[in-house]
Fold this sequence. Notes:
This protein has 11 helices and 11 strands. By secondary structure, the chain is of the alpha+beta class. The chain folds into 2 domains: 8-88 and 140-191, AhpD-like, CATH 1.20.1290.10; 196-319, Jelly Rolls. A 6-stranded antiparallel beta sheet has the order 1-2-3-10-5-8, with no helix packed on it. It has a 3-stranded antiparallel beta sheet with strand order 7-6-9, with no helix packed on it. Strands 4-11 form a two-stranded antiparallel sheet. Helix 1 (8-22) runs antiparallel to helix 2 and helix 1 (8-22) crosses helix 10. It binds manganese (II) ion (MN).
Amino acid sequence: MATQKLNTKEQNIAMIASRTAKGDMDALTVALNQGLDDGLTVNEIKEVLVQLYAYCGFPRSLNAITNFMNVIRDREAHGIHDEVGVTPTALAADANREEIGRTTREELTGAPFRAAYAEFTPAIDTFLKEHLFADIFARGVLTRREREVATVAALASMNGVDGQLAGHISIAKNQGVTDDQIAEILEIARTPDAADIPFGLGVPNTANEKYFSGPSFLNPLTTDQVGVFNVTFEPGIRNNWHIHHGGGQILLATAGRGYFQAWGSAPRELHPGDVVSIPAGVKHWHGAAPDSWFTHIAIEVPGENNHAEWLEPVTDAEYNKLK
Ligand code: MN
């Protein structure tokens, strides 16, 4: 069976939601223009940004809405007329929000809701039910499936919300989103923007591509005194086992999540801020985690007759043990 991709509308919703959650306004501007160019209505986009205040807070949501206002103003100034679209509906003042919210949440999750936090702090559960799952979900404009695409993309773009992300992946699947489509949302959310790579993506790393398992990017920062290179790996991409002769190498992890492994040692997971000092002569590899981009700065330690000796690839069997 052919892989079922997200449709263009859902791809745009995921991108807009992700960049809203990250608070990356430059990337959001690009995503908003792309969404409008692809036919999202103004009210559909507004609805994504309204819903997201429940998942990433008023500051992110309001910044995104202000950004969207400016995007529309710029487009109008350039003679581009965007379709407003369907008007959202409001629940009646006397609607039973508690009942509506509880029912909506059960339909989304497919099970009666139980959570210790709701008993511990009933007020937050009341707000969830009566506001998020009643007032907001009842607004229409977006389908429940589209709302969950937005939520998964937003949560996948934030740190420290793995539990909520897993919960919403499950809800999204209940709305018919397939495993492949979840993977696509996560890829959209985790693909870095310029602002995520402090020293810049650079250019496709064609000079070394035969020593890498797939696409990577190289940005030479300086070679005047010591060689300093920014290297970015796509998810799942790593370099072959290799040895730096002459001088060793220092890696400074700056973005995403990756790994380093020295021959005979366990792999070491790398996050921004981590430093790896690799002595000359030590066989090793480095690269991205299976589901994340990864960027490090590589510093060539000066030595006699510096060069890299490229060896065998890291096998899938070895690499696939990594998370
Ligand atoms: Mn190396």
